[in-house]
Structures are given as structure tokens and as C-alpha cells.
Amino acid sequence: EAGVVQSPRYKIIEKKQPVAFWCNPISGHNTLYWYRQNLGQGPELLIRYENEEAVDDSQLPKDRFSAERLKGVDSTLKIQPAELGDSAVYLCASSLESGGASGELFFGEGSRLTVL
Amino acid sequence: AQSVSQHNHHVILSEAASLELGCNYSYGGTVNLFWYVQYPGQHLQLLLKYFSGDPLVKGIKGFEAEFIKSKFSFNLRKPSVQWSDTAEYFCAVTLFSGSARQLTFGSGTQLTVLP
To answer: Which chain B residues contact residue A3 at CB under 8 A?
Structure first.
């Protein structure tokens, strides 16, 4: 079974530039998450989707971050414009149950963003 | 606000030593508890989980964790570590608030096992 696929693995950009990350969850997983992991910290939830609906985006900085999951399968996270503090690893995860009730999330390998 | 604390940021052990990583959470309601592991160059993966019942749960690769409700703790243990256990370990808690369930992670503990 294929796991959660993310791209790109690494991205280096200058501040004020836009950047986008893509995620393809495990087939059949209706719930998709985007997390941000800063250096030396644990993952922090940015947004959670149930199918194509964003059901928890309270931690997403909406002035510069946006996300979409148009067909309820793969998803894109965008930052525009990027700031120095956005340097982090962006993790995508998926789960089978609604709301991740069992707590077992399946993570991708992450996209490491460096903003210069 | 809910929080998960892992007080050990970096632990260094020799092979065959015993391991205990601490995890505390700040919430008095119903919780589910998890340990995730991230091996070098790999993605986060579930090590073990506790929902209810026996507070001593066993996971993969000889790891176990004990839920002590009175101490709000869920410490991870292994009697004898191996070099291959070198990884970063994250405690995580799902807090139930109404219909919302949010998985909150601790800051992680880097375990280095010396051969």
C-alpha cells in the first residue's frame, strides 16, 4: 500500500516569494491534515480536511497561507508571500476515521522549506 | 489550553541500557494517548497507543508505555535499547472537546543509542 506522498521534499526560496506544497494521501483516507514542524518542536496542526471540507483551520495564518482539497483527494498548501519565520517542515498526514478518532495518523516524509 | 510536555530533549544511552521517556499532559478530560517515532530520514509513524483498559500498553519493537491518570503521564519504556532505536520520539494526546478531537504533539525527545 502506498503511503502519503508529498512534494517537493526540499524547497529554498527568498522571502516574499510564493511556495506551494502538494500532498497525496493514502487511498481511501477521507481525512487529511497539514502540520507544520519547527526545528526542535513537535508538529502543530495547520488545517484538517474531511473530504473536501476544511473542518479545522483555526491555526492556519490566513493572511498568507491557503489550502485546498478540491476533489477530496490530494491537497495543496500555499504560502504567499513567504516570510523568514515560515522556514519549517510541512507535514501532510491522512487518517481513515473521521476526525482522526483513533489517533493513528499516517504521515508523509514532509516538505522542508527554507526561506532566505 | 491543552499542552503536552516532554521534558527530555535529548537522551543518550549505550546499547542494552533501559529507557524511560517522560510525557505529561495538561487536561482533565477524556484523552487518547500516543507515542510516535521518527527514524532518521523517515516519516513519523505510530509506536503505540492507549484508549482505555489496561494502562500498560505494548507497542512495536519491545516498547511499552504506562498511563498513570493521577499523574497525567504516559511514559515510554524499553528494558534494553538497541542502536536501531536511535530516533526522535513524540508523545501525542487527543483531547475530546465536544465533537472536536485534536491531536496535540509534545516537542519530542531525540534518543541516541551508542553502539
So the answer is: 43
